[in-house]
Amino acid sequence: MGLFKQSSQIPPLDVDDSLAIVVDQVTKVYSRNDKTIKALNNVSFSVKKGEFFSIVGRSGSGKTSLLNIMGAMEKPTEGRIAINGKTLTSLSEKELTQIRRDEISTIYQSFNLIPVLTAFQNVELPMILKGISKEERKERAIKLLNLVGLKSRMDHKPDELSGGEMQRVTIARALSNQPSIILADEPTGSLDEEIGHDIINLLEGINRDLGTTLIMVTHDNNLSKRADRILKIKESQIEEIIPGDGELIRKNELSSRQTKELSYY
Asked: For position 258, what pLDDT does the model report?
């Protein structure tokens, strides 16, 4: 049985084409040691295509459960979620696998790189699973490692890279199948402040220049303010959704980069 059981009793969501993700009345309940824990309680919101959207909350507030559900890694106990117009509860397991492989990528705090593979091979792996030709895999992996500033380190394995470099490899790997949505789970949590700032700048550039929808989970209020909008979650429920400083930041950066050629792809 697949992760999301198809059900004719749950109608698909009618989703506007401008929306990347729609979360509709989602509740998530876990059962542990004969106890039930409500991680999410009737959560509803939407994220626009190309938006930088931040989810902020304390540990245990439900933000990671929400990210897992948006990434089609867990199913909600109640409610519906749509990714690029497709309601997950209406899809087959094969279709869900395609969404997880092609439309969404997740960047983890713990990197999750394969230790016996080089940076190049880690970036290449998702493309192998998708069946992309060897020539295209090589070209795309080199471009992505250049994008994140690691072209000269592509033959190094994870234990030969710094924490910041490993996170850059993780970002390049996340982009390898050209997803429309990137989910970032505390992407700077294990990095020092200076390197973390560089990683956020890189993610913002990908969002801005490639038009990739970026959804970032963080407990850092200063980082969350860089987004277009901020969802504050508290005790499994949405506390508020407020504007961030993303638009102002982009305007300031564009005014200072008018003569600078973009290097992405």
From this structure: 39
Find the distance separating the first CA and the last CA of the chain, reported in whole Å.
40
Mean pLDDT in residue range 4-18: 71
Strand order of the β-sheet with 86-87 is 35-48, 19-32, 78-83, 86-87
Query: At residue 114, what are phi and psi to the nearest 5 degrees?
Result: -85, 115
11 secondary structure, DSSP code: P
Q: Rounded to the nearest 10 degrees, how much is the dihedral formed by the CA atoms of 88, 91, 94, 97?
A: -10
The confidence score (pLDDT) of residue 227 equals 96
Q: Nearest-CA neighbor of 122 among 91, 161, 84, 75? A: 161
Cβ pair 181, 211 in contact under 8 A:
no
pLDDT in tens, 147-169: 899 999 999 999 999 999 999 99
H/E stretch holding 79 = strand 78-83
